[in-house]
Amino acid sequence: MNEINWGIIGCGDVAEVKSGPAFQKVPHSNLISVMRRNEEKAKDFAKRHHVPHWTSNAEDILNNDDINAVYIATPPSSHLTYTLRALEAGKHVYLEKPMALNAIEAQQIINVLGNSTGKLTMAHYRRKLPAFLKVKELLDINSIGDIIHVDLQVLQSKKELFVADAIDNWRIQPEISGGGYFYDLAPHHIDLMIHFFGPILKVLGLTKPTNRNANVEEIVNGIISFENGIQFRGIWNFNAAEINEKDECIIYGTNGRIKFSFFGSEVVLKRNNEEQTFSFTNPNHVQEPMIANTVDYFLGKDKNPCTAEDGLMVMETLGKLSGNL
User: Fold this and answer.
1) Comparing C-alpha atoms, which of 188, 26, 207 is closest to residue 122?
2) What is the percent of the chain with per-residue pLDDT over 70, rounded to a whole number?
3) Hey, which of 96, 136, 183, 255 would disulfide with 178, CB 3.0 to 4.6 Å?
4) Interatomic CA distance for residues 76 and 73, integer angstroms
């Protein structure tokens, strides 16, 4: 195999800018076909992005012998079905987060993956963005000494998040998304913590549901203990006042601290009463670095940038923090 020929199942908003064009820009990567249930939107996507084929039937992607890798970018409720079908067909899979509706489904994917010739990478693309590469570098060189604990605060206003609060907003329908906005945003946060600090030992969580749906979390308050002893506490509030909005993570060490936001492009290092700010510019298509690494992994040139086992750990952690596991 010298080229990765992609099919996209779910060419919606995420694929429009964040990921879709990158499949045509990365070396040894070609986007062959795209699928969306709405025929006109699938056709429009293919025309605008110069994709040779389009379809409204996922089976056309899965049964196409010219396609050896599938990007699954549908809502989580269909991740299990499409991933299993792709792996059973021997195709590689680049799978959007969250991995599935829950940890049980994620484990099913891993079970099938073990018997497939296909490979799987989770689309936790922040691992490869420059700001988070810098955080990892600073941690690896012990820039703030031994890590003691991590504090995460994600406070987002209802006005911002529920602007699309309509009957067709799948992100607040647990049967489609797995939960509420917590399941949509927290995978980014939890995955980076796993990437930075390794396996998790114990998770404790308390939640407050929305008034609309007891299965959708308005507030999640969590504590995580990593196997290496590092402690984490996080608060996710999706009904904060606009004046209180915050996206901040601080890693505390014996000799200083590292501060960053998940949707920002700056990393602040403070030690010995001196502060240094590192500023970065993200690529136009934010998933491009991750897709490039994934292509190399599928071609046998590099290691897996985010394994299915890490995806499962994220799902288990989400379930424990939200009281669903």
Assistant:
1) 188
2) 97
3) 183
4) 8
Which residues fall within 8 angstroms of residue 9, CB to CB, at 6 or more apart? 35, 58, 61, 62, 70, 71, 72, 73, 74, 82
Spatial CA neighbour of 34 closest among 89, 74, 3: 74
Condensed to tens digits (0 to 9), the pLDDT of residues 23-56 reads 999 999 999 999 999 999 999 999 999 999 999 9
Burial of 131 from C-beta contacts in 10 A (0-12 / 13-18 / 19+):
buried
Give the integer Cα–Cα distance in Å for 251 and 201.
18
Helix 308-321 vs helix 181-197: crossing angle, to nearest 10? 120
Coil vs helix vs strand at 247: strand
Where does residue 151 rank: exposed (0-12), middle (13-18), buried (19+ CB within 10 A)? middle
Size of the chain, expressed as the number of residues it contains? 325
Token readout for 63 is 């049964």
Nearest residue to 287 via CA among 4, 41, 73, 36:
73
How confident is the model over 150-159, as pLDDT tens digits? 999 999 987 6
Going from the N-terminus, what domains does the chain have, and what CATH number goes with each?
4-123+287-302 (3.40.50.720), 130-281 (3.30.360.10)
Show Cβ contacts of residue 146 under 8 Å, excluding neighbours closer than 6 positions: 253, 254
**Amino acid letter at 67?**
I
Using CA atoms, how far apart are residues 286 and 132, in angstroms rounded to an integer? Answer: 12
Both structure tokens of 45: 């996507």
What does the block give as tokens for 145? 């000494």
